[in-house]
Design brief:
By secondary structure, the protein is mainly α. It has helices spanning about 1-35, 40-50, 60-85, 90, 95-105, 120-135, 140-160.
């Protein structure tokens, strides 16, 4: 129940903010392109007089103007639905993520570290490398073996005493 209430108030808040921003932007665009203020009754009266006096929509400019007037509410609803689905945590954390990507790009490209992505395959590679190293090791010389045996014998004699 509380969750539904929260979602409802969230939708109302987003709708109010979106409506305010959208009306300002749409009015500015219509003023800039067509010198038409859709919030003014005078502009609508001009269109009404044109239509009542037998005005005809026959040029491309007229069709585009009509299309823009029809698209104002459609774009308003579409934008509101899009904003309701938006992930605002990701939007708020975007500067940190962008900075993180920048630092990784700046300092991470020439990194000397090795990143193991698949541990199982890397373990197989490590075992293969160990096997190759064992085959490369030089054979123990007989002198080293004799010296070790002699040292063990002396230590054994000392321990017996």
């Amino acid at each position: 129940m509380i969750r539904k209430l929260f979602r409802f108030f969230r939708g109302l808040l987003i709708g109010a903010l979106w409506t305010y921003v959208y009306v300002i932007v749409a009015d500015f665009v219509m003023q800039l392109l067509w010198n038409f203020n859709f919030l003014s009754a005078r502009s609508w009266q001009t269109i009404s007089r044109f239509w009542e006096s037998g005005g005809v929509i026959n040029t491309g400019k007229d069709f585009i103007f009509l299309l823009m007037l029809l698209m104002v509410p459609v774009l308003w609803v579409w934008g509101w639905r899009l904003l309701l689905r938006a992930d605002y945590v990701a939007v708020l954390l975007w500067p940190l993520a962008a900075y993180n990507r920048h630092i990784i790009k700046k300092y991470g490209q020439d990194s000397k570290r090795i990143i193991l992505r698949n541990i199982k395959s890397s373990q197989k590679i490590i075992e293969e490398i160990k096997d190759q190293l064992d085959s490369i090791k030089p054979a123990k010389s007989k002198e080293v073996g004799n010296i070790r045996n002699g040292v063990f014998e002396k230590l054994g004699e000392i321990n017996k005493k």
